[in-house]
Amino acid sequence: MPAILGTGEHRYRVVENFAKLPDGWQLTDVASVAVDSKDRVYVFNRGAHPMVVLDREGNFLRSWGEGLFCRAHGLHIDANDNLYCTDDGDHTVRKCTTDGKVLLTIGIPAKPAPFMSGEPFHRCTHTALSPKGEIYGNARVHKYTPDGKLIKSWGEPGTDPGQFNIVHNIATDADGWVYVADRENHRVQVFNGEGKYETQWNNLHRPCALCCCGGGKNPTFVIGELGPGMAVNRKVPNLGPRLSIVDAKGKRIARLGGEEGPGVASGKFLAPHGIALDSKGDIYVGEVGITDWKTSFPDEEVPATVRATRCLQKLERVRG
């Protein structure tokens, strides 16, 4: 029987062997995932075919991005089905059509800004859009016009409000609020559109993936928590990896998995790194299970299934 995660209204069935790839293909790490208006699933991965496109049943449709991307990291899709592909290997954000045509490039490929200079980009991680179509990107938080001109930046290293320790993911809502997964500070920080700190959400363990869903004035958020990153707490229960669902105030609604640590068994996670929802409320989770493998399982070899398709999971919402 497939595993069921969550309780009450927030129960999800793990879809076994979701991704059906051509023979010999491997996704390896799935850095991020997005779903378009037709429920096609875009799998931004670190294998030989960086963008793999599936239907909602997991059937292979096409791939693109070969020779274009260096290291997949973040993926955002807008209301017109344009994809914002954040490549932390060559320090760029590319706006692409669903068939891979590049419409805009922000950053200079393979020419990073100096480390900790605060200038864009050095290992940029993710992108989101404001209601006006303005583009947000990070390491720091950088705000751009829709045509790629820098408006402003905010943030610096540290642990105080408005400071960051690995700005890992970013999301916006219909009111223009900006939500930042401040991973190694174990929190999500919330800002207005001008970068003014408003509040933070705590009781998270290395929040890595962040998805705003539901739309309107009362969205919910699905947060992927990476789980322990050090040997000293590797075996500690109740730290993840897991998914948490919270309301617009950061109050936890549900938590999915993570009680007994990482694993490849049904109902377990390896390293949630990107999250998207389709029109039916099903959740797609991209995981960096290979990059994170030695952190979680230092004495074990990476299983073949993890290299192939296990780093993409589908959780089907249970109704009724």
What this model shows, in words?
By secondary structure, the chain is mostly beta strands. It is built from two helices and 27 strands. It has a five-stranded antiparallel beta sheet with strand order 1-2-27-26-25, with no helix packed on it. The longest helix has 5 residues, at 304-308. The two termini are 18 Å apart. The mean pLDDT is 95.
Key terms:
mainly beta, 320 residues, globular, five-stranded antiparallel sheet, 2 helices, four-stranded antiparallel sheet
Please specify the SSE layout and strand pairing.
Layout: E1 4-7, E2 10-15, E3 30-35, E4 41-45, E5 51-54, E6 60-64, E7 72-77, E8 83-87, E9 92-96, E10 102-106, E11 127-129, E12 135-137, E13 141-144, E14 150-154, E15 156-157, E16 163-164, E17 167-172, E18 178-182, E19 187-191, E20 197-201, E21 207-213, E22 220-225, E23 242-246, E24 252-256, E25 272-277, E26 283-287, H1 293-296, H2 304-308, E27 312-317
Parallel strand pairs: 15-16
Antiparallel strand pairs: 1-2, 2-27, 3-4, 4-5, 5-6, 7-8, 8-9, 9-10, 11-12, 12-13, 13-14, 17-18, 18-19, 19-20, 21-22, 22-23, 23-24, 25-26, 26-27
